[in-house]
Amino acid sequence: MNIIISGYTGFLGSHLIKVLKKNNSVTKLNLRNFKNYEKKKNFNFLKKKFKKKSILINCASSLKPRNNQDLFLNSKLPKIFFDLTKKNKMKFVHISTINSLIKERQDEYSISKRKGELQVNDPNFAIVRLSLVIKKKKGIYLPEGELRKFFVYLNFFTLPIYPFIYPGAMYRPIDIDYVCKKISILIKKKKLKTVNIQGNKTISSYELFKDICNQNNKYCFKISTLWLKKFVPNFIKNILYRSNLFQQVLNIKTYV
Predict the structure, then answer these.
(1) Cβ(6)–Cβ(13) under 8 Å?
(2) Which terminus of the chain, N or C, has less C-beta within 10 A?
């Protein structure tokens, strides 16, 4: 099976390649240095990459969109991929987020990913919505993917105790190896279907950070969200509410 993967340098894409290349022919689709992204004709180079009876897995995404090109990756690129794969009679798997199903999530990341999903609709197309993807080794959290921000905070300062919002966002984490396994099973089926992949256990960001602290022999201190919501001025909260990270940490909207 010939598989094309975009966003192959990211957390999910890099792990997918390791798993899928064992039994498949894997082609890396590099968009990092691509320019003039608003003009569809500039994507003609993709036609050489796309072949019939191939599968495109789109992992290209911007978790913290800051400019038009970041938003383009999340909201418009899926449509371009969809048109090209449909024309070439290919299968298309688009990686998205559980956040797209939560209407209350109004940060740029969730909005743009939601728009990306609405661009396409076809039996040979599948959306894979993911919750928080993590990596563990022998029960120990590794500083990869979205967990990296917890480790950055832990190692940025040398403190006797680390303050953290309680309870914070609620997650249903899934291990990256499990995600890769589910995707490898999905693409083997004759008919693709949209799936939501989440873990069985719900955990708050505070509990997650506390576990990371414990494994690094450090300590964390609870800061109640009720206290913050009470004393932080409204105009500051209105600015922060548009932040994906702030929404996750303060549990303003649940990230499941």
Answers:
(1) yes
(2) N
pLDDT digits (tens, 9 = 90+) for 88-130: 888 999 999 998 888 777 778 889 999 999 877 776 689 999 9
Here the tokens at position 93 are 């798997």
Amino acid identity, position 165: I
* Residue 185 CA: distances (Å) to CA of 155, 175, 191, 236: 38, 16, 12, 46
Question: Residue 181 and residue 214: Cα distance in Å, rounded?
Answer: 29
Domains and CATH numbers, the chain: 2-250 (3.40.50.720)
Question: Computed over its alpha carbons, how large is the radius of gyration of the chain?
Answer: 19
Distances from the Cα of 62 to the Cαs of 47, 65, 80, 91, 245, in angstroms?
24, 5, 17, 23, 13
pLDDT per residue as tens digits for the range 127-141: 999 999 999 999 999
User: How many other CB atoms sit within 10 Å of the CB of residue 108?
Assistant: 18
Q: Name the pTM for this structure.
A: 0.83
